[in-house]
Amino acid sequence: MKKTILLLACTLIFSCTKNDTPNYGGVNESGAWFYVKDSQGNNLVDPNTPNAYKENEIKIYHIINGVEKLMYDSNLDNPKFFTITQEDGLYKFGLGMSLDSSVDYPISYIQWNDTDRDTIKTEYLREQGSVIKQKIWFNDQLVWEHEFGKDDYDETISIIK
After folding, report:
1. pTM for this entry
2. CB neighbours of residue 144 within 10 Å
3. What is the pLDDT of residues 94-150, one digit of tens each?
């Protein structure tokens, strides 16, 4: 019995390793929130704002395996891969960004209307079954970067159009 306990104890002790890499355990952090304003500070996703974007005209496209695809999935809570919500009196735009693993920087397009389109590029950390956004570019301008050790994934990014 002593040998069995000793063998078990040795196995447990020697199987332990120091690992400073966080274990995210199947997390998917691929969405982002945006305040979308014009140069005068008007909220362009607030339906009460003159010349605001109309929710029914907005379309999301992802580049998947090199092909642009209009995003729609009726099984999702937000089937068009975006949502507009009001929080603390302000309207904001939530986007489900591309997760294409065939490229280093997946691309999404926000087609606001027939004439206005923006590009979202994302860098992800992909490990242990998780996909964690690390950087977001809006029309090739870095607008958000994860700060290691900080829980900043739900921050709202301000965009001036």
Report:
1. 0.80
2. 21
3. 999 999 988 999 999 999 999 999 999 999 998 888 888 899 999 999 999 988 766
Q: Which long-range contacts (CB under 8 A, 24 or more apart) does 85-91 make?
A: 90/35, 90/43, 90/46, 91/43, 91/45, 91/46, 91/47
Residue carrying the six token digits 């642009």: 68
49 by Cβ neighbours in 10 Å (0-12 / 13-18 / 19+) ranks as middle
Q: pLDDT tens-digit profile of 39-84?
A: 999 999 999 999 999 999 999 999 999 999 999 999 999 999 999 9
Non-local CB neighbours of 10 within 8 Å, separated by 6+ positions: none
AA letter at 95: L
Per DSSP, the three-state class of 21 is coil
